[in-house]
Amino acid sequence: MRTPIIAGNWKMHKTVGEAVTLVRELLAGLGAVHDREVVICPPYTALFPLRPLLVGTAIQLGAQDVFYEAQGAYTGAVAPGMLVDVGCRYVIVGHSERRQYFGDTDASVNRKLLAALGSRLRPIMCVGESKPQRDSGEAEPVVTAQVRAGLAGVPAEQIAEVVIAYEPIWAIGTGDTATAADAQAMHLAIRQTLAELYGEERARAVRIQYGGSVKPENVDELMAQPDIDGALVGGASLKAESFLRIVHFQ
Ligand code: PGA
Q1: For the domain that residue 185 is a member of, what is the CATH number?
Q2: Minimum CA distance residue for ligand 1 atom 9
Q3: 11: domain range?
């Protein structure tokens, strides 16, 4: 019922030349994919050059962030319509690195998400607790509060367009993955929150990705969980071999 979605978050990696090389390798090894969506999120500078390579392929383009205004005097910012213009279908909002280094808050993440939906971009909204929050037993209330705040004002008929990525901060880039059982428990809590907001049926339609040290070695177990519908992959998305293995999870 929910089509799994594997997305690569390249973060601040890859020149245009390197991006083109990686995409050629991905396309060469991808094969036919019918039962899952594949998205790559390169840096802004590589989006436009990659577009012609991806047209008509099974790989969709996404961006790593977006601003919420449509245009204007916002130096350094990129508008939703500009991402659509270069071929993006998805955009990540609220990644913990944006929250940590660039001042994103639940409120600004919510504005970005609404602006993305308004431009027919599908947002991938990241949520996740810190290590101290997990250790003090607050992980679930922290994450479900982020979900509620980030989704404020999203109409019921658009909620299935939103992808939520549960990314525990302590698992990002550390090699320290959440256990499949812990990830599943949080995904279930997120889906219950969605059900409170939108009803059971609509909640069942929303894809919830896990992110944080997803690797070829752990993807199958994570994807076998009933409420894990995909992966948001950082480090392991930078090499064709590891990303393709993750895309081809069993
Ligand atoms: P990681 O990053 O796979 O390198 O842990 C995931 C992310 O930050 O989206």
Answers
A1: 3.20.20.70
A2: 234
A3: 5-247
Which atom belonging to ligand 1 lies closest to the Cα atom of 174? 5
3-state DSSP of the chain:
CCCCEEEEECCCCCCHHHHHHHHHHHHHHHCCCCCCEEEEECCHHHHHHHHHHHCCCCEEEEECCCCCCCCCCCCCCCCHHHHHHCCEEEEEECCHHHHHHCCCCHHHHHHHHHHHHHCCCEEEEEECCCHHHHHCCCHHHHHHHHHHHHCCCCCHHHHHHCEEEECCHHHCCCCCCCCHHHHHHHHHHHHHHHHHHHCHHHHHHCEEEEECCCCCCCHHHHHCCCCCCEEEECHHHCCHHHHHHHHCCC
Closest Cα to atom 6 of ligand 1: 234
Measured by CA distance, the residue closest to atom 7 of ligand 1 is 234
The pLDDT tens digits of the residues spanning 154-192 come to: 999 999 999 999 999 999 999 888 899 999 999 999 999
Q: What is the pTM of this model?
A: 0.98
Report pLDDT digits (tens) over 50-75.
999 999 999 999 999 999 999 999 99
Q: Which atom in ligand 1 lies closest to the alpha carbon of residue 96?
A: 8
Report the domain count for the chain.
1
The active-site residue out of 95, 97, 129, 187 is 95
